[in-house]
Structures are given as C-alpha cells and as structure tokens.
C-alpha cells in the first residue's frame, strides 16, 4: 500500500508558474505508475498527467500539454508536477494518485493523496 501527500499548491497569477510535489511512503512506490488529477469546483475529477513506473513514458491531457511537466524521483519517493503559463481554468484541487499501470482515467487509480489547492487569479 502507498500513502501519498501533496504539497506546493497556492495562489498564483495568470501566466505564472508553480510546482506541486507528492511524497510517497509505503511499499512498492517505484513499481507504481503515478498520476496527477484535478477537480474544479462543481466539476468531475479529470486526468492531468501520468508517468510510468520508471519515468520512461509520460502522458498529458490536451489542456495542459506543453505547459505542465510530470516527473518522478524513485530514490526519494517523490513525484512532481511543474506547471507554467497557468490559466484561470487551471484552478482546482490537484491530487496525486498511484496505479498499477499508467492510465488516463481517474477511476482507475488505486491510491490517492488528500489534494492540494491551486488558485489562478489576479
């Protein structure tokens, strides 16, 4: 079982940048694919980005492609989401999640963190 804790959220102006971090603990982290998903108020949870267990393959939602970068450091048990050129529509609670295989569907993830809030506003 994997425990996940996100950090790094906050208030940022449109066009700004932010880096989210996810600290993983528990057995087998390095064997899990990891993902970032988000949920805006009044909307369903949606896929943002995913990375394979060894970091060799990444996936992105079309809405963030070219602006967001997912990465991981298995030695440190960390997953990151670097976000740039942020838009108001990126405002949401961002969740880190683990899955047996890299997936782009929110309901396929097995373990979830508690979320960190990102607000893009001037």
Main features:
seven-stranded mixed sheet; four-stranded antiparallel sheet
What does this structure look like?
With 122 residues, this protein is mostly beta strands. The chain has no helices and 11 strands. The strands form 2 sheets. Strands 2, 4, 5, 6, 9, 10 and 11 form a 7-stranded mixed beta sheet that branches. The chain has a 4-stranded antiparallel beta sheet with strand order 1-3-8-7, with no helix packed on it. A hairpin with a 4-residue loop joins strand 7 (68-73) and strand 8 (78-83). The radius of gyration is 13 Å and the shape is globular. The model has no long low-confidence stretch (mean pLDDT 95).
Helices, strands, pairings?
Elements: E1 2-7, E2 10-12, E3 18-26, E4 33-39, E5 46-51, E6 58-60, E7 68-73, E8 78-83, E9 92-99, E10 111-112, E11 116-120
Parallel strand pairs: 2-11
Antiparallel strand pairs: 1-3, 3-8, 4-5, 4-9, 5-6, 7-8, 9-10, 9-11
């Amino acid at each position: 079982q994997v425990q996940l804790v996100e950090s790094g959220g906050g208030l940022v102006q449109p066009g700004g940048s932010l880096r989210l971090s996810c600290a993983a603990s528990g057995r087998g982290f390095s064997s899990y694919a990891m993902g970032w998903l988000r949920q805006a108020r009044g909307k369903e949870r949606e896929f943002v980005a995913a990375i394979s267990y060894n970091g060799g393959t990444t996936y992105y939602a079309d809405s963030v492609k070219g602006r967001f970068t997912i990465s991981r450091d298995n030695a440190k048990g960390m997953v990151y989401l670097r976000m740039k050129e942020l838009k108001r529509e990126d405002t949401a609670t961002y969740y880190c999640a683990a899955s047996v295989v890299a997936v782009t569907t929110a309901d396929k993830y097995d373990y979830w963190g508690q979320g960190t809030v990102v607000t893009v506003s001037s």
